[in-house]
Write a structure and sequence with these properties.
The structure holds two protein chains of two kinds.
Chain A lengths: L2 E4 L7 H4 L1 H4 L7 H7 L16 H11 L6 E17 L2 E19 L2 E7 L4 H12 L15 E2 L17 H18 L3 E19 L3 E20 L2 E11 L10 H15 L8 E8 L6 H8 L4 H5 L20 E4 L20 E6 L2 E2 L6 H7 L7 E2 L8 E2 L3 E4 L6 H6 L3 E13 L5 E13 L2 E6 L3 E5 H6 L1 E4 L4 E8 L3 E8 L2 E9 L6
Parallel strand pairs in A: 5-7, 9-16, 15-22
Antiparallel strand pairs in A: 1-16, 1-21, 2-3, 2-6, 3-4, 6-7, 7-8, 9-23, 10-11, 10-15, 11-12, 13-14, 16-17, 17-18, 17-19, 19-23, 20-23, 21-22
Chain B lengths: L2 H14 L4 E17 L2 E19 L2 E7 L4 H14 L27 H4 L2 H15 L5 E20 L4 E19 L2 E11 L8 H13 L10 E7 L5 H10 L2 H5 L20 E4 L20 E6 L2 E2 L6 H7 L7 E2 L8 E2 L3 E4 L6 H6 L3 E9 L9 E12 L2 E14 H6 L1 E4 L9 E2 L3 E9 L2
Parallel strand pairs in B: 7-14, 13-18
Antiparallel strand pairs in B: 1-2, 1-4, 2-3, 4-5, 5-6, 7-19, 8-9, 8-13, 9-10, 11-12, 14-15, 15-16, 16-19, 17-19
Classes of the chains: A alpha+beta, B alpha+beta.
Chain lengths: 512, 444
């Protein structure tokens, strides 16, 4: 069992969903799932839906007719565009229209789920009946409260709605980024720009009387550049993403991302062999937060805690990390990629401090795990689409900023590895062994960043790594990514510059 | 309307709306998944769905729209979106659809018994696998067992007159458990996936392997950073195949973004490495009579005794490269444009027994798990996290976790010096156990 996170690739989801490919036992198929996770572009949606509250009540009542304590109906529509610019050509333009609904019943620790691509009374009631069979024989039925419309604060503000943007504007932004990357250096031989946007509408209603509706935009812009020279090649990657309108591109953001990407491609052509074995690591601020996303975040998701198999099981209130270490998951950061107004079960987003000054305070829960653990709902019940059950997932997860000056952290590190950016990584949430792969890294010699080294894997145990953090900078920053846990979620990972003592580095050169 | 008629009719409607060429891919699916933990059903999920992907070409400009609602108004909307979107893309004379009237039969893709096997029987299967996996005293917790099944029917129609269909099914089950000893935790799992329900392994066989994968990793020891032999167990041998696979993607090759790009008909590996791509194998997990755009699949040798013999192409990339499609258009369902991907991608078995390879290894790592991104397709660099067993004097000495391994694709391919006979053809990426004589290992 491994959960993983990536910094790039337009989400590739379909392969997991269907038929032979999708029907494999998730719990037991690490190798295969990893293989399945790298498949094909995503699809998605349809115009907004008007829903009759009487129908929602009827479906929820039907869902609980055979027993069970919690019934829910989730409706979704998604309309997406993806455009590919590569080798100077707009090679393809893809439109996705998708809609569907899922009905869930919880009875004790059991969950029944059924979904339908067609949203009609007949199909919803049929899904309710199928989902409800899980509760057969459970005894007394629960009286569902009638749904009542409610409103929650919005953490997403939009200045330039995607629906008002002409396609020419999208092409222009892509072209500007493409040119900026090519102009950066003649060693850049190819540029790929993946543009993706979507509008996703959700309606959630449940037997507690909840009824929420919203519609959120999402932008994902990925630049890849191929640098060639010095007898080798390097593919760089940089990305922008937010739940926002087209103002995300204000101030030349796309061109800046493209130039950063090109810079990485060129610098890494000079990379030397990375060292192998235990080294001290200084991690630059930003997406490096994927370290704690993997190493600590996944093990703090409450599903494996409720199963009493997670590495942090039974450790609430205990000191689990260095006193310098505070970690937060906050799905309410304005317009972030991991932000929504409420999770996919309707729980409002908020700031959750998971570990404070080294002490474990909280797990991240969904409705089911909160019930099992008798803890609060933290707003982490998320799902990729109506085809999936919600499960505990991270949102925007980061190491809180500390007091150290980043330059001092580097200067006080005699030798080691300076990790400027990472691609992504994975973790086994049971034994806590994680890994992540360097995208851009340098040797540290006498407190200075010196030569770049080839992409090495870093590996360790989550409990060791958070005990061995001995410096935390004051320069918190973030990066967007895709997190996979049998289904995909949009996330942000963040951290200030930190130093970790003694991580195993997978280089090709023995010794320091 | 039946999906065959629908696909044909939608092609005609695209042409009427102004497309020069059009292709419609209609897929319908049914799926079921079950999870059991501690002897109780935890989740039951069921669904059926259908959708269409519409690809249009207008003056060499390419666009696509997908929709999961086959009602008239939605389909009309999707056609309009696809045709409209084609205005913004770049014209390219290589943008063509395949003409391929040939057909081939592949045996054993669809099992009608899966759907009619009673639900209780499937639940019993995963209850049984969980109980069996918990038998060993070192196994303390269950992370759950699961069963999944699916079946799908695909229709592809295009404006060259191509019209093809096939049906496929599959089912799988597995279990994941935890072994504990003091503060130590080790997890292990195993699964079995097949086209036919009757071909599934027994729960005992799957359970035994899952339990062993967990408890064997208790009491690991440390090893020093060093260069040593690495034996890739067949469970991880696909790591090497995945590295070849991403580098033989014909589009990458054309773009100069593959470390194998200039190596056609050259020696890239040890004589012991032979790799085939086979779309036709009966009951193969990645078999299909035609690819994601309707081109008949074939059996091809990709690497023959260490010599690189070919790349993978779909129709458009093939045309750019001046070759015919190799039947390798991949499709992740109706929501995506065809990409490039393999069918059953297999490294040929050797003559040795896996235990002979261990016996012949004085000191080294028997690799059971690799993490990370695998071989970089652009420059061939490899680095990963590793766990498995340390071998001393031809015997398994103790488990090791938290290691790193690294090298280059060239060193790895050429370093293969022993290949076992244990390839499992029920996997899409299948390789036997093999040894690489020397690689960098990172430890203490």
């Amino acid at each position: 069992m491994n959960y993983q996170v990536m910094d790039g690739e337009i989400p590739r989801r379909r392969f997991l969903e269907l038929g032979f490919k999708g029907s494999l036992a998730v719990a037991a198929t690490p190798a295969l799932i990893a293989q399945l996770l790298s498949c094909s572009p995503k699809g998605a949606a349809k115009s907004p839906m008007a829903v009759d509250p009487g129908l929602l009540d009827k479906v929820i009542r039907k869902a609980l007719a055979q027993g069970g304590e919690f019934g829910e109906v989730y409706l979704e529509n998604r309309i997406s565009r993806s455009i590919l610019l590569e080798e100077g050509k707009f090679k393809s333009a893809v439109f996705g229209l998708s809609q569907g609904a899922g009905v869930r019943v919880i009875s004790g620790v059991k969950t029944g789920y059924a979904y339908s691509d067609e949203i009609s009374e007949e199909k919803l009631l049929r899904a309710a009946e199928v989902a409800g069979t899980i509760a057969k024989g459970a005894g007394a039925t629960t009286q569902a409260a009638a749904v009542k419309a409610s409103q929650l604060p919005s953490f997403v503000t939009v200045k330039l709605p995607l629906a008002d943007i002409a396609d020419e504007k999208r092409l222009e932004i892509m072209q500007r980024a493409h040119q900026a990357a090519l102009d950066f250096d003649p060693k850049i031989k190819m540029v790929t720009i993946d543009y993706y946007d979507e509008i996703r509408g959700r309606t959630i209603a449940n037997s507690e009387g909840l009824w929420l509706t919203d519609e959120l935009p999402l932008l994902f812009f990925i630049v890849q550049t191929l640098g060639t020279g010095n007898g080798t090649s390097h593919m760089g990657r940089e990305r922008l993403s937010a739940h926002a309108g087209f103002e995300m591109f204000d101030g030349g953001a796309a061109e800046t991302a493209a130039r950063n990407c090109a810079r990485e491609s060129v610098v890494m052509l000079e990379a030397k062999d990375a060292p192998a074995g235990k080294l001290d690591i200084v991690m630059q601020n930003g997406w490096g937060g994927v370290l704690v996303h993997e190493a600590v975040g996944h093990p703090l998701e409450a599903d494996n805690i409720a199963k009493e198999i997670g590495v942090f099981t039974g450790k609430l209130g205990q000191t689990v990390a260095s006193p310098l270490f505070t970690m937060v998951d906050d799905g309410s950061l304005p317009n972030f990629r991991g932000t929504t107004n409420f999770d996919d079960e309707g729980t409002p987003m908020k700031r959750n401090v998971l570990i404070q000054d080294g002490v474990l305070l909280k797990y991240m829960s969904d409705v089911l795990s909160a019930k099992q653990l008798k803890m609060e709902r933290t707003g982490n019940g998320r799902r990729e689409s109506f085809r999936y059950l919600p499960i505990p997932r991270m949102t925007n997860t980061f190491i809180e900023k500390g007091k150290d000056n980043p330059a001092d952290i580097l200067a006080s590190t005699k030798s080691g590895l300076y990790v400027q950016s990472l691609s992504g990584g994975s973790v086994n949430p049971i034994d806590g062994v994680f890994n992540f792969t360097c995208r851009e890294a340098y040797l540290i010699e006498d407190g200075k960043k010196t030569v770049p080294v080839k992409g090495a894997t870093l590996i360790g145990n989550c409990l060791d790594v958070i005990r061995n953090i001995d410096a935390v900078g004051n320069d918190l920053d973030f990066g967007p990514g895709i997190c996979g846990k049998g289904q995909e979620a949009e996330v942000t990972a963040g951290q200030p510059t930190v130093r970790i003592r003694g991580i195993n580095v997978g280089g090709t050169r023995a010794g320091r | 309307m039946d999906h065959k008629a629908l696909a044909e009719q939608l092609v005609q409607r695209c042409l009427k709306k102004g497309a020069d060429a059009a292709e419609v891919y209609v897929e319908s699916n049914r799926e079921l998944s079950l999870e059991v933990r501690n002897g109780e059903i935890e989740t039951v999920q069921e669904a059926a769905s259908a959708g269409a992907g519409i690809r249009v070409l207008i003056g060499g400009r390419l666009a696509f729209a997908s929709v999961n609602d086959l009602r008239e108004t939605t389909l009309e909307d999707a056609i309009g979106r696809a045709v409209g979107f084609a205005k913004i893309t770049t014209a390219d004379p290589d943008h063509v659809l395949p003409e391929d009237p040939t057909t081939v039969e592949v045996a054993g893709l669809y099992d009608p018994d899966i759907a009619v096997t009673p639900l209780d029987r499937k639940i019993e299967l995963i209850k049984a696998v969980e109980i069996a996996a918990m038998k060993d005293f070192r196994i303390t917790k269950s992370a759950g067992s699961a069963y999944g099944e699916g079946e799908s029917e695909v229709f592809i129609a295009n404006s060259t007159g191509l019209l093809k269909t096939y049906r496929a099914s599959g089912c799988s089950f597995g279990v994941s458990v935890v072994a504990e000893k003091g503060e130590q935790k080790a997890s292990g799992g195993e699964y079995c996936g097949r086209r036919f329900f009757a071909d599934l392994k027994t729960p005992e066989e799957v359970a035994e392997k899952a339990a062993r994968n967990a408890y064997e990793m208790l009491d690991p020891k440390k090893v020093k950073t060093q260069k040593a032999a690495i034996i890739f167990d067949r469970d991880v041998a696909g790591t090497l195949l995945a590295g070849i696979l991403s580098a033989i993607n014909g589009e990458r090759v054309l773009q100069g973004a593959s470390f194998l790009g200039g190596k056609l008909n050259q020696k890239i590996a040890s004589d012991l490495l032979t790799v085939t791509d086979d779309g036709l194998r009966p009951k193969g997990p990645a078999s299909a009579p035609f690819d994601g755009e309707g081109v008949t699949t074939q059996t091809r040798v990709i690497v023959e005794a260490g010599v690189l013999k070919g790349f993978l192409y779909n129709t458009i990339i093939g045309k750019k490269a001046g070759v015919k499609s190799t039947g390798n258009a991949s499709r992740g369902g109706f929501t995506s444009l065809p990409g490039i991907g393999p069918h059953n991608f297999t490294m040929s078995a050797g003559a040795a027994k896996p235990e002979d390879i261990i016996k012949a290894t004085k000191s080294g790592l028997l690799l059971k798990e690799v993490t990370g991104y695998g071989i970089n397709p652009v420059n061939g660099q490899f680095s990963g996290g590793a766990s498995g067993f340390w071998i001393e004097n031809g015997k398994i000495a103790f488990p090791v976790i938290g290691l790193t391994i690294a090298g280059t694709a060239g060193e790895m391919f050429n370093g293969i010096d022993m290949v076992a006979d244990d390839v499992d053809l029920n996997r899409g990426l299948a390789a036997p156990t093999f040894r690489i004589k020397l690689m960098q290992i990172g430890g203490e």
